[in-house]
Specification:
With 260 residues, the protein is an alpha+beta fold. The chain contains four helices and 14 strands. A divalent metal cation 2 binds at residues 111, 179, 212, 243.
């Protein structure tokens, strides 16, 4: 069921958005060469406890997950692009890391993701390819948000994302994409990363959605890691992921998870 939020409820969602943004900022700053992914999860867990928030991930067990997730943040490295389950791995110089985090504050959820290169950005072909991939997801996210205007349709967001992705030379997987956000992390409507303008559910004031373009460097095929969660590219190429929680208002899109 698709729910529309009142202006007052959208205001009540702002603290969750700010908290999610703060966690990604602090965990991103801590993601240095030699730091263990489990340390990053512990930092996010500590911030949740200190804020009195609730994790959306730790007990999360959808049909595509092998078991409850068990951690509080997704850490996807290099050829992993979504649902990266933190494990005993120390970050290396030049790793492409995607962080995806969702939490509930006072009963309202926000969801956001960011990708970046750990350590010193590499030169040469590898560094250029990483920068292009990350920037494409960022540009696609900006395009999707710009299309999230009242009176438009979900397909307008999807088409805007796809135009950036295809324009950068990437194929696009639509198995996973954006979604409704509210009292729970995942709800209707689905917001695919490819679609046709003018199609799909109308964007009405009060609709709150996560817009999340993710691209792989040279494929649109993925497989699930033996951990039962982490999604990796079928050909070993790298992936990147950008996401914000956005409320549709009378005045246009409001990004609830904006980072300073």
């Amino acid at each position: 069921m698709i729910e529309l939020r009142t202006p007052r409820e959208i205001e009540q969602m702002r603290p969750a958005g700010r908290f999610v943004a703060d966690v990604l900022t602090q965990v991103g700053a801590a993601a240095k060469v030699g730091v263990n992914l489990l340390e990053l999860d512990a930092l996010a867990h500590r911030m949740i406890k200190e804020r009195g928030a609730e994790s959306c991930y730790i007990d999360y067990h959808p049909s595509f997950g092998a078991s409850p997730f068990g951690k509080v943040i997704c850490t996807s490295v290099n050829d992993a692009v979504l649902h990266g389950l933190p494990f005993d791995y120390r970050l290396q110089d030049g790793d492409l890391l995607s962080l995806d985090f969702a939490a509930s504050v006072d009963g309202w959820v926000s969801d956001s993701a960011v990708s970046f290169v750990v350590g010193n950005p590499r030169g040469g072909d590898r560094g250029a390819a990483d920068r292009k991939l990350i920037e494409a997801t960022q540009d696609a996210l900006a395009a999707g948000i710009a299309a999230a205007q009242p009176g438009n349709k979900i397909g307008d967001i999807s088409a805007a994302i796809a135009a950036v992705g295809h324009g950068a030379g990437y194929r696009i997987n639509t198995d996973f994409g954006g979604h409704g956000v509210g009292r729970t992390m995942h709800g209707d409507p689905h917001v695919p990363n490819d679609g046709r303008k003018g199609r799909g559910f109308p964007l009405k004031p009060g609709l709150v959605i996560a817009i999340e373009p993710w691209f792989l460097e040279t494929t649109d095929e993925i497989f699930t890691d033996p951990d039962g969660w982490t999604l990796r590219s079928a050909d070993g190429s790298r992936g990147a992921h950008s996401e914000h929680t956005v409320a549709i208002t009378e005045d246009g899109p409001l990004v609830l998870t904006a980072r300073d």
